[in-house]
Amino acid sequence: MFYGQICLENHYQYRICEKIRRCEECFKIVPTNRLHTCGEVFCKICNKQNPSGHLCYIQQYTKAPRVDDFLFIFYDLETTQEVSRQEVLPRNDKEGIVTSFLHEPNLCVLNQRCFSCIKEQQLYYCQTCGFRQKIFCDNEVIPTLMNHVLQIRKNFKHVFVIAHNGGGFDHQFVLNYILTSTDFTPDLIMRGTKLISMTVGNVKFLDSLNYFNMALSKLPKAFGFAELSKGYFPHLFNCSANKNYVGPIPALEFYNPDNLKDEKARNELLKWHSEMVAQNYVFDFQNEITQYCVSDVDILTQSCLKFREMLIEETGVCPFMEAVTIASACNIVYRRNFLKPNTIGIIPKGGYRMRNNQSTLAIKWLVLEEKSRNINIQHAAKGEEARVGGVKVDGYSPDTKQIFEFEGCYYHGCSQCFTHQRDIPLKEEPTETLNSRYEATMVKNARLKSLGFEVIVMWECEFKRQLAENAELRDYAENHPFVLHEPLDPRDSFYGGRTGNCCEYYKIKGNEKIKYVDVCSLYPWVCKYGKFPVGHPKVFVGKECPALTNTSGLVKCKVLPPTDLLHPVLPLKMNNRLMFLLCRQCGENLNGEECVHSEDERALSGTWVVEEVVKAVEMGYKLIEVYEVWAYDTVQFKKDAEEGLFTAMMNKFIKVKQESSGWPQACQSQTERDRYIEQFFEREDILLEFSKIVDNPGLRSLAKLILNSFWGKFGQRENQPKTSIINEPSDFFNLMSCPSKHINTVLPVNENTLIVNWEYREEAYDSLTTVNVVVAAFVTAQARMKLYSYLEVLQERCLYYDTDSCIYVSRPGESDIPTGDFIGDMTDELEKDGAGSYITEFVSGGPKNYSYKLWSTRDQTFKTVCKVKGISLTYEASRIINFDTIKDMVLNIDEPIYVMSKQIRRTQEHEVITLPCKKKYQLNSLKRKFLPDYSSVPFGYKKIKT
């Protein structure tokens, strides 16, 4: 029996039925050579047959690391900026057209290390990979570099090409060359125009900045290379007219000293330059540029290899071969060394309700059918879908023997919506095509009719048209309880850190001092000591939801905040900000007046970690309605009783960090050192090894990187946009007409090449096997609650807070925030300026926008510090934006200040240019309602009258 004309034709022409078959009971298409049981599927995550609809777990990483037949190439480029051109800036920029300067490489230095010579320090020539350093200095630097890479890759199984900030700078020249001069179609992972990785055959281009996010000049100190340091070079002197220059050292302006952020670094440059001038130093351009670039590549090479060696030794993970960022490397470290089986669940796409893949649109149709027919229909929003005749159906009315099938156009192969590419294998299910899905749908419906049921069918596209044309139907469906409170989306519970200013200006009075404290290793502390969900949750809806005080997990609910809480508890995303407020309506309107709104207008609806809501209720919030709860079993570290989810990994690297920091200054005698080890064990339950307590900057940097970069991978956004390079018209047509993909943008590079940005349709993308956003939400929620414990004590004395830190007023007779030396303790941020240093005057223009004047006990002088997000405070910019100008703006409510600078940017064609940039500085205190005395209260605050 054949189920359609296509099946018959395929049977005769391609003998397709020798490869796949359709089960006569459940209509599932399966490989002919695979054992099939109805109701079971082969799970690619679990790598075995499992019941359909089973729940998966993040798997241990058992794949052995690659340790042979590899080559690393580390390189750096120097560029000229001689070619000028006109750039049209975005419409909202008043400058309109500006002159930019194109970067063109004129020097490349590379070091290469293969599996044979990677441990050799002084080797000049390797029998396997050849000369270990190469210098290209002609006008064809990138073609020469690529020719070398493409030739040498034939000798190795894996080649890794690494540059520092390569994704933002060096690799851009390579990608532009590939786009304009070759027919390669590299695999790209991008964020905007920045490259995360680029793969061409067996060659992978990586950015070391994605592994250690610090300037190249800081790497020698971080990894303990005292003999290496980044020198000085006059980049603005690098032009064709000077390529053979030999003479006095170029003028200071060619070194661009006013573009340095660090005043100390600027003073060191000025001192060095004056010394060179005094010595009548002879500057040989070719020698200087080569030495400078060689030095940079040596720093990069030694730092990367040291980092790799230490990570392999400590964890068995090679960061460059197995990952493209430090976060993904840390995730592999955890899964290879610490993850226990069946511990962290993978959340099904769409969550746990509607687990039969019924969309909100399908529920809208079913509730409308119930209303119009005046019947009761069993469907997913009421629980499980019904099973009729051995198969699941979208809706079923046992009283009328009617079956309701809502045919999602993609899932069921709608011939009206998808007219092309109907016979290509689908990405998420390679044994299926759109035609096979359509035929299976027709066969299923025909069989149900043959069993005596009436089958009512609605296609997604037709229902959307009906809703668009009938406002009455649309309003009823959208306001139905099953639809109004859509299933809990766990990503809605994932908020960032708490950041904001509570005061715009404060100057100490009398014996007051302003102190600045921050939590030592906040996120590692949360990961070690915090509570975390394991397994999969029990899902409760509406009245069946349990009391939150006895529950841990996520809750979607409606709450009414109190009116007089100075520091609200619950976060809410509003006005493109993370807000903490007492009235929704006041927050939406940024209402600076007294709140006059009703309770319903004040109420907040959202999804939060249960523990945060419990704390909110403790602080006076009222729980109005609970829509849905995901109740998890949890684990939490308890000394001598229970190990936390991440405790073992945190302990491993806390131990490494502490030992590689060396002995504290106060521990000089044997007795003091023994006591130090004993105290650390008592506090952290970690036994330090006496012989390993040695100053080791490299190992300490490695441990810090892992401790702080570990947890973020769990919150990674799924279905990230992809970028494809298209050289063939047929490839472009296939991509445009592919039913599982949605095209975002198409950028022509030239007449032969397109850059296409696309993403999978919502129905087609796979859940990431390393992600559990609930775990990430627990991390940030517990971090916010840690910070809140200090805000609760400080009340109006808090001037500013930022994720893990507080700036507050200290007064005689009032409790200070206690400080300590262990993770989770508050530490004195000003201690680096001398014990007892304190702030005398503080000013803030908003979150991540503040400045202060402090008294340094070490230097016995006043200093100012300024922090402004979005503006690079170079020496030149700091003369415009500083403590005095911010103070003047706050006190006098002045107009915005503009800062002119030169900025390196990437074009959509992956060229690199320098162009003038105008940044606007303005006050941004919009998260709270500020009062005439520069203090503030949250939106919706009303002091209770007594």
From TrEMBL:
<dbReference type="GO" id="GO:0006260">
    <property type="term" value="P:DNA replication"/>
</dbReference>
<comment type="similarity">
    <text>Belongs to the DNA polymerase type-B family.</text>
</comment>
<feature type="domain" description="DNA-directed DNA polymerase family B mitochondria/virus">
    <location>
        <begin position="159"/>
        <end position="343"/>
    </location>
</feature>
<dbReference type="InterPro" id="IPR023211">
    <property type="entry name" value="DNA_pol_palm_dom_sf"/>
</dbReference>
<feature type="domain" description="DNA-directed DNA polymerase family B mitochondria/virus">
    <location>
        <begin position="491"/>
        <end position="786"/>
    </location>
</feature>
<dbReference type="InterPro" id="IPR036397">
    <property type="entry name" value="RNaseH_sf"/>
</dbReference>
<dbReference type="GO" id="GO:0003887">
    <property type="term" value="F:DNA-directed DNA polymerase activity"/>
</dbReference>
<keyword id="KW-0808">Transferase</keyword>
<keyword id="KW-0239">DNA-directed DNA polymerase</keyword>
<dbReference type="GO" id="GO:0000166">
    <property type="term" value="F:nucleotide binding"/>
</dbReference>
<dbReference type="InterPro" id="IPR004868">
    <property type="entry name" value="DNA-dir_DNA_pol_B_mt/vir"/>
</dbReference>
<dbReference type="InterPro" id="IPR012337">
    <property type="entry name" value="RNaseH-like_sf"/>
</dbReference>
<protein>
    <recommendedName>
        <fullName>DNA-directed DNA polymerase</fullName>
        <ecNumber>2.7.7.7</ecNumber>
    </recommendedName>
</protein>
<keyword id="KW-0238">DNA-binding</keyword>
<dbReference type="InterPro" id="IPR043502">
    <property type="entry name" value="DNA/RNA_pol_sf"/>
</dbReference>
<dbReference type="Pfam" id="PF03175">
    <property type="entry name" value="DNA_pol_B_2"/>
</dbReference>
<keyword id="KW-0548">Nucleotidyltransferase</keyword>
<dbReference type="GO" id="GO:0003677">
    <property type="term" value="F:DNA binding"/>
</dbReference>
<dbReference type="GO" id="GO:0042575">
    <property type="term" value="C:DNA polymerase complex"/>
</dbReference>
<keyword id="KW-0235">DNA replication</keyword>
